[in-house]
Write a structure and sequence with these properties.
Blueprint: H1 3-12, E1 18-21, H2 29-40, E2 44-48, E3 50-54, E4 57-60, H3 66-77, E5 93-98, E6 101-108, H4 124-127, E7 129-132, E8 135-138, H5 141-152, E9 161-162, H6 172-185, H7 196-203, E10 206-208, E11 215-218, H8 219-225, H9 228-232, E12 240-246, E13 258-261, H10 270-275, E14 287-293
C-alpha cells in the first residue's frame, strides 16, 4: 500500500479487509486481535498511525517513532508465547511516508489450513479471532476445535467422503444448472464431454479414498448439489442451516423486508440458495444473515 492507496482506503473507511489504529502509545494490543482475525479469515491490511474521529472519518496522525514501532512489532510477532505463528516476511511490514508523517502498513495473509488457528497467548480456545465486516470477534470453542481438526486431517473437512451417499443423492436440476453456467463461461471445455458422475468428480463433489477403496459424494458435493432430504439425513453427520434475510429497510421496527430459508418450497442446497431456483423464486439480493455447515 502506497500513499495514494492509503488515501483511497481512508475515504472508504474500515471494512472486511482493512483496519486502522492510532498506535500513539506504541503497538496496541488490539492489533494482535486483528492480526489473528485476518489470518484466520481472508487476510487483510492493518495501518498503524491513523486516528478515528468518528464511525466514518479517519485522519493520518503518524507515528512518533515508526522504526521503533516496527521493531516492537517484529519482536512480538516472532514471540511464540505472544502469538502462535508469524506469517509475515519483510515485504509485509513497511513504513509508508505521507507528507511529513509516517505510518506502518502490515499486510496479513490468510493462514493456510495446516497453520490455523492463529491465536494469542498459550490457549487457542480463548485466543482465536476471526474477521466479520469491520470487527474482530473471538471464536467460540466449537469453531476453534473445527479449525484444529481440519489442520490435523490430511484432507479438508469438505473433501471427506460420505461412503453411503451416491449419485442418487444429487439434486439433478441443481447440477445441470451449474453445468449450464459452466458452459456459458467456456463452451468447449473438455469437462463438458463427461457424464454426470465424472463431471462431479472433476469438481471435487465425488471422490474415492485410494487406501480403502470407498467412494461417494464428498461433503462439499452433498452441500452444493445434494437433495435436501439427503443433506438432512443424520448419517451425513453434517449440521446445516441456511437463512437469508434482506435487512435494507431503514425502519428499526422492520426485522427484514424479505427472507429465504429452508421452508420446503425449494431444494435447500448451497447452489439453489445462492443462485436461486429454476423459477427464480429464490436468489434475491441483500445480506446473507446465516449459513452454517459443520
Amino acid at each position: 500500500m502506497n500513499a495514494d492507496q492509503l488515501l483511497e482506503a481512508l475515504s472508504l473507511s474500515e471494512d472486511f479487509e482493512i483496519e486502522f489504529k492510532s498506535a500513539r502509545g506504541g503497538v496496541p494490543r488490539s492489533l494482535w486481535e486483528s492480526y489473528c482475525a485476518f489470518a484466520n479469515t481472508d487476510g487483510g491490511v492493518i495501518v498503524l498511525g491513523v486516528k478515528q474521529h468518528s464511525s466514518n472519518r479517519f485522519e493520518i496522525q503518524g507515528l512518533e517513532d515508526a522504526e521503533k514501532v516496527r521493531q516492537d512489532f517484529w519482536n512480538n510477532v516472532n514471540n511464540r508465547s505472544h502469538v502462535s505463528h508469524n506469517l509475515l516476511g519483510n515485504e509485509d511490514v513497511r513504513i509508508v511516508k505521507f507528507n511529513s508523517d509516517q505510518v506502518l502498513v502490515v499486510n496479513v495473509p490468510r493462514a493456510g489450513r495446516f497453520e490455523r488457528p492463529i491465536y494469542l497467548g498459550p490457549n487457542p480456545l480463548t485466543g482465536t479471532y476471526r474477521r466479520y465486516h469491520e470487527g474482530d470477534y473471538r471464536c467460540d470453542e466449537n469453531e476453534v476445535r473445527r479449525m484444529i481438526s481440519d489442520s490435523d486431517d490430511q484432507t479438508s473437512a469438505d473433501s471427506r467422503v460420505l461412503s453411503k451417499f451416491g449419485i442418487s443423492d444429487v439434486h439433478v436440476e441443481s447440477l445441470q444448472a451449474y453445468r449450464n453456467r459452466f458452459r456459458s463461461r467456456d463452451a468447449i471445455h473438455p469437462w463438458l464431454e463427461l457424464d454426470v458422475l465424472d463431471f462431479l468428480r472433476k469438481l471435487g463433489g465425488f471422490r474415492q479414498v485410494r487406501d480403502s477403496g470407498e467412494e461417494g459424494l464428498t461433503v462439499a458435493g452433498l452441500l452444493m448439489f445434494g437433495k435436501e432430504e439427503s443433506i438432512r439425513d443424520p448419517s451425513s453427520n453434517v449440521s446445516f442451516q441456511l437463512d437469508f434475510r434482506d435487512r435494507r429497510s431503514d425502519d428499526p421496527k422492520v426485522r427484514w423486508v424479505d427472507r429465504v430459508w429452508q421452508d420446503g418450497s425449494w431444494n435447500a442446497n448451497l447452489f439453489q440458495f445462492f443462485f436461486g431456483s429454476s423459477d427464480e423464486s429464490v436468489g434475491k439480493t441483500g445480506q446473507i444473515d446465516c449459513v452454517r455447515a459443520t
